[in-house]
Amino acid sequence: MLLASIAVPLPAQPPGSRFVVVLDAAHGGDDSGAQLGSGATQPEKAFTLALSIRLRSLLAARGIAVVTTRESDAALDFDRRAEIANRARAQACISLHASVSGAGLHLYTSSLAPAQPARIAAWKTAQAAWVTRSLALAGDLNAALTHAGLPVSLGRTALPGVDSMACPAVAVEVAPIAAGSRAQAAALSDPAYQTRVANALAAALVQWRAEAPQP
Amino acid sequence: MIPRYQTILFVVLLAVSATMGVFLWQMRYRSYQRLLNSQDSAPTQAPQVAPAQQVTLYVASDADNALLAQPLSLPLPNSPGPRARAILGRLLDLYTVPNSPHPVPGGAAAIAQVFLLPVDDATTASTSTAASKDSRPQLAVVNLTRAFAAAHPSGLETETLTVLSICATLHANLPGVTQVRFLVDGAPRATLAGHADLARTYLAGDAAPTEGLHP
After folding, report:
1. Is B156 in Cβ contact with A159 (below 8 Å)?
2. Which residues in chain A have their CB less than 8 angstroms from residue B103's CB?
3. What is the average per-residue pLDDT within A4-15?
């Protein structure tokens, strides 16, 4: 309740001359997230960190500045993640998740109703002013992932952290390519699958940069 | 040689200890009898068989990342709170069956209570009459058990679908329910299992899927 009244200053538009992407590897520390695969050999926190590092390298190679919320197995709460994203004044914020339920990639944007940008926004609903841009970013991600032959589903959700981000933000959840099969569930730990996902996400962000308004 | 007064003292103390032991044993027996008498499980009211009514459950499907409407005939109580609990219990029972499209343990026992409260809306309150009392918008407070939240699979898609299926099912069968809040064991909780926000108020009407579209 207290947090709802704390305001976040929104970045001015256009946010800056640098094109910055924030990569948020979900979970970390004591919060392991989902257990992936049979035998729970890999926690979600390790998968998202590995994907974040791989994606950071791909984006850096394409000249895109990247800010990551964590570079190690560190615990970060939702508010801290949003703080890092908002300070970066990023043009895209990607929250990385993984799960063994469902199939392919799940792209989620905030379920907050779109609102007009304001100079000061409520902390818990700062994303409302960016929902339209977030949906456009999800569209680019969807196109790139589909082009890479990966099954994608789109949805809206209430995700703490993302709802407080003042940037185009999409939560990406990576699931096995096909659901319901133990053999396919192992695909999450398949380096080739991870590379396909990372390459497609990088391609989408390069496309997003090309569409971004020039300063 | 033990002095005589010490022997007498020892015998007296031993006798006192034995008397206290017998006294405590009697007290314990009486308490147990009192407890048994208070738990009279004899039925005081004859059970009534409620007539079966048509309901619509919005069943989550992980493979499709969607909610699918499923009509069902159920005997339901007339009182709105227990009625909502019975409907949600049936919904969650579907998730426990083998090969469920959205496997979640817990079943009907996961819903501790459902409270229905009038939504605080000054406009509605001032214009409503006694006749329109039943059609006033209501806030449903769904109290989940801690065991359900602890056992719920962690993941963005699976948690979102559980929350949305509860909201959409409530709205479909109790149209007066426009908002839904969640508690876990009577207390607010940040997320269901690390992802879906449980601290916010959900708009029940937004959760129901449009024909052919994902939530």
Report:
1. yes
2. 101
3. 49
> Which ranges of chain A would DSSP assign to H, the alpha helix?
2-5, 44-61, 78-88, 131-147, 182-185, 191-211
Q: Does B157 touch chain A (CB under 8 A)?
A: yes
Q: Where are the domains of chain B?
A: 1-42, 52-207
Ramachandran category for residue B96: left, alpha or beta (phi over 0 → left; psi -120 to 50 → alpha): alpha
Q: Is residue A78 part of a domain?
A: yes
Residue A176 is assigned to a structural domain of this protein: yes
pLDDT the model gives residue B214: 47
Give the nearest partner residue to A153 out of B163, B197, B214, using CB atoms: B214
For residue range B77-119, what is the model confidence (pLDDT) as tens digits? Answer: 888 999 999 999 999 999 999 999 999 999 999 999 999 999 8
Continuous segment of H or E residues that includes residue B6: helix B4-38
Q: Confirm whether A96 is domain-assigned.
A: yes
Report the number of distinct structural domains present in chain A.
1
User: Which pLDDT does position B215 carry in this prediction?
Assistant: 46
Contacts 24+ apart (CB under 8 A), A147-150: A147/A200, A147/A203, A148/A196, A148/A197, A148/A199, A148/A200, A148/A203, A149/A196, A150/A104, A150/A105, A150/A177, A150/A196, A150/A197, A150/A200
Give yes or no for a contact between A72 and A27, defined as CB atoms under 8 angstroms apart.
no
Q: What is the domain-level CATH number for residue A56?
A: 3.40.630.40
CB contact under 8 A, A108 and B156: yes
- What are B39-80's pLDDT values in tens digits? 666 666 666 677 889 999 999 999 889 999 999 998 898 889
Q: Which is more confident, B203 or A3?
A: B203
Find the closest chain B residue to A156 by CA distance.
B215
* Minimal C-alpha gap between B63 and chain A (Å): 5
pLDDT at B213 over 60: no
Q: Please indicate, yes or no, if residue A10 is contained in any of the structural domains.
A: no
> Helix, strand, or coil here: B205?
helix
